[in-house]
Design brief:
The protein is an alpha/beta fold and about 170 residues long. The chain has one domain (about 35-165): 3-Layer(aba) Sandwich (Rossmann fold), CATH 3.40.50. It is about 45% helix and about 15% strand. It is built from six helices and five strands, in the order H-E-H-E-H-E-H-E-H-E-H. The chain has helices spanning about 15-30, 45-60, 80-90, 110-120, 140-145, 155-165; strands at about 35-40, 65-70, 95-100, 125-130, 150. It has a five-stranded parallel sheet, with helices on both faces. Strand 3 (about 95-100), helix 4 (about 110-120) and strand 4 form a beta-alpha-beta unit.
Length: about 170
């Protein structure tokens, strides 16, 4: 006595194919890294470099994975409270703040505040640098809060963003 178990009807070829395709699609999505919303903090002197990073993140052939929610144009205001509020709203939309660090970063009056505000809002923070040598003149918050510096390497940046986002969940 053999049995096929269950008393229902068998699946048609089309139903079986649809289930297989749904399972394959689900497995592909599970294997793809999650894209995180990222706020990029940087000194205005580094805008060209940051725009290059943004372009790389948008490139479908790149394995740099994030959605950019940072400020694209400087706020046209001298009112610091207004600027802080605008930046804060951008940071709130993100899970991670990515700080682009160069020799100009510590001179920025906003980067240190953006790092501290990101931490205060419960966001992960990652600092990255370009080139072979880590900058030595860092914003105080990076040193004080022992924020990890990673090189401008797509895998290193993506991995650091994923880790920082998980820590804050």
């Amino acid at each position: 006595m053999g049995g096929s178990g269950g008393g229902g009807r068998g699946l048609t070829y089309r139903e079986e194919e649809a289930l297989e395709n749904a399972a394959r699609s689900s497995m592909r999505q599970a294997a793809e890294p999650e894209k995180h919303n990222v706020f990029i903090s940087f000194a205005m002197e580094d805008a060209k470099e940051v725009n290059l990073l943004r372009g790389q993140a948008k490139n479908e052939d790149s394995n740099l994975e994030f959605n950019d929610y940072s400020v694209k144009e400087a706020y046209d205001s001298k009112n610091a409270d207004y600027i802080r509020q605008g930046i804060r709203e951008k940071i709130k939309q993100c899970s991670v703040t990515l700080v682009y660090v160069s020799n100009d970063t510590s001179d920025s009056k906003w980067v240190d505040w953006e790092i501290r505000e990101s931490i205060r809002l419960g966001k992960g923070v990652v600092a990255m640098y370009k080139g072979d040598t880590k900058p030595t003149n860092l914003p105080h918050a990076i040193s004080e809060l022992r924020i990890k510096l990673v090189p401008w390497n797509h895998e290193a940046i993506t991995d650091a963003i994923h880790r920082a986002a998980k820590k804050r969940k």
